[in-house]
Design goal:
Strand content: 5-15%
GO molecular function, one term: metal ion binding
Helix content: 25-40%
Region (Disordered): 319-351
CATH class: Alpha Beta
Largest sheet: 6 strands, mixed
Distance between the termini: 48 Å
Number of helices: 13
Number of strands: 15
Radius of gyration: 20 Å
CATH architecture: 4-Layer Sandwich
Structural class: alpha/beta
EC number: 3.1.3.16
CATH topology: Purple Acid Phosphatase, chain A, domain 2
Strand order of the largest sheet: 1-5-6-10-12-11
Family: Belongs to the PPP phosphatase family.
Pfam families: Metallophos
């Protein structure tokens, strides 16, 4: 039985300090991660399968353990005290910092519950994380113990499956399902389980759009489906939607638009796997006032009015990881650091320096120099 309780802000800020103020970032100890996951489960229990969110909001695609590029996203889009975020899943695997990436997002979700919104991707799965890096990273960084992997993958079962934005846009990780015509079918599902091999839940995290087809077609991924223009048009019409936003597919330019903006893919892991050389993006939605449309903008750029893709390159640390990383960068060099952030310990070092008025995360980004790299805006 899950017993609800909360974590003091000063403890959460201390966790943020461990992750942000050290290079490489310090991993949080198992007891702390267990505490974070247990607390978040109680929050997610009350969140529906499809969250109802409002603009303005920034939508983030796959991150895949690229921790320093996640910090770039906050540097570009603003820190959570001031910016609403929707993350579309695939937080772990592939990159060298899956532990640090998911730890930061979990702490931020607890610290700013109304600003940080997380949904489930196909990599938020026990099977996938066993094969694509997260499980091995946990073993390497936690001295052969899989406890942290168990805590976090158990939490993945609680993540919502999608979101609507202003009631007009549907966001999920992958795509549509031939078994689902109405959003209410998703709302009625039991999501608190491992992602199954097939069915609506699997299709939501595995499917992809395909401009060459009209209907559904089996996906070459071996899970989910390809869906075409007739499918997306009917789904939007039947559910009073104007658009679908998803992630799940690598985009060389950081994003892809389909069917004149009816479907958008946002990809947020630049130089994916430290070798693809691709750009990344964050989709910023300022408003959804689509009564006054600008057809030229919509046709030329593939986005609706009030939306733009903020495109960025890989961080400098991403390039350094390419040379030095090999999945060991996040290991604490001092064994004594391993227990220093246990939230159940009342003697956390310096935690009395934190208080509700001292927003550590916001101040961290205020003190960082603005990135000099040009940021492309697609209006």
């Amino acid at each position: 039985m899950t017993v609800p309780f909360s974590i003091p802000i000063k403890d959460l800020d201390y966790c943020l300090e461990q992750l942000l103020n050290h290079k490489p970032p310090r991993i949080l100890p198992p007891d702390t991660i267990q505490h974070l996951c247990h607390t978040l489960k109680t929050q997610f229990l009350s969140i529906p399968n499809i969250m109802s969110l409002q603009s303005p909001i920034s939508v983030v695609g796959d991150i895949h353990g690229q921790y320093h590029d996640l910090l770039e996203i906050f540097q570009i889009g603003g820190s959570p005290p001031d910016t609403n975020y929707l993350f579309l899943g695939d937080y772990v695997d592939r990159g060298y910092y899956s532990i640090e990436t998911i730890s930061l997002l979990l702490v931020l979700k607890l610290r700013y519950p109304e600003r940080i919104n997380l949904i489930r991707g196909n990599h938020e799965s026990r099977t996938i994380t066993t094969n694509y890096g997260f499980y091995t990273e946990v073993l390497n960084k936690y001295h052969g113990s899989a406890d942290v992997w168990n805590y976090i993958t158990d939490l993945f079962d609680y993540l919502p499956l999608g979101a609507t934005i202003d009631g007009k846009i549907f966001a999920c990780h992958g795509g549509l399902s031939p078994s689902c015509q109405q959003l209410d079918q998703i709302r009625a599902m039991d999501r608190f389980k491992e992602i199954p091999h097939d069915g609506i839940m699997a299709d939501l995290v595995w499917s992809d759009p395909d401009v060459e087809i009209l209907d559904f077609k089996l996906s070459p991924r071996g899970a989910g489906y390809l869906f075409g223009s007739d499918v997306i048009n009917k789904f939007c019409n039947d559910n009073n939607l104007v658009q679908m936003i998803r992630a799940h597919q690598l985009c060389n330019e950081g994003f892809t638009t389909y069917w004149k903006g009816k479907c958008l893919t946002v990809w947020s892991a630049p130089n994916y796997c430290y070798r693809c050389g691709n750009k990344a993006s964050v989709l910023e939605i300022i408003h959804s006032n689509y009564e006054t449309t600008n057809n030229k903008l919509q046709n030329d750029q593939g986005v609706l009015p009030g939306q733009f893709f903020n495109v960025f390159e890989a961080s400098q640390e991403n390039d350094e990881d390419t040379i030095k990383g090999k999945s060991v960068n996040g290991i604490n060099s001092d064994p004594d650091d391993f227990d220093s952030t246990n939230l159940s310990n009342n003697n956390i070092n310096n935690k009395d320096n934190y208080n509700d008025e001292n927003d550590f995360f916001a101040s961290y980004f205020q003190e960082r120099p603005r990135r000099q790299q040009h940021v492309e805006y697609f209006l």
